[in-house]
Known about the structure:
There is one protein chain. By secondary structure, the protein is mostly helical. It has one domain (4-157). Helix content is 69%, strand content 0%. It has eight helices and no strands. It has helices spanning 4-21, 28-39, 42-50, 58-82, 90-96, 98-114, 124-127, 129-157. The longest helix has 29 residues, at 129-157. The termini are far apart. 28% of the residues are buried.
Amino acid sequence: MGFFTIQCNLIVGATCVLLAINPQRASTMFNVFRLIGVVAITGVVYHVVLAGLFDLDSWGLAADMILHTVVPVVAVVGWVVCGPRGLTSRRTAQCALAFPFAYMVSTLIRGAVNGFYPYPFANVNTLGYALAIINGVWITALFYGLAVGADRLGRTLGRRTPSPPRTADSGRPPPV
């Protein structure tokens, strides 16, 4: 679980399952995690910084494509098309910052203990603490920019939640 990508993909999956169970779900905690899943920067950071570092084939290439391209694109497109939107705010975006910040802090602590740094931009052994921390600040700033952008886009597109189910005989929503 040391990879940001895996954690983000789990968040996307969990929030989608929770929405499938209750499409009207909304709480501060859920909204923060939904925003994290929508703006999970794994696709952006991977394709800009990491993609050229690996020579993958077969199942490794398929897993790489699913984790770093398919899930991030589907998460964003699903949010734009299906929502729910209008659940975020600048405060939600600020709360979501705890995730990349906590990830980077835990990565630096874990790396100091066992020498494992999951990403080259966080590898203190090759970069030193100052550059690794600067890289973490840049990634957190990118994350925040995307979160604020998602909030604004959500407001522009308007609040949209899934329609209530229609009854088979009348074509109208069932009474509440």
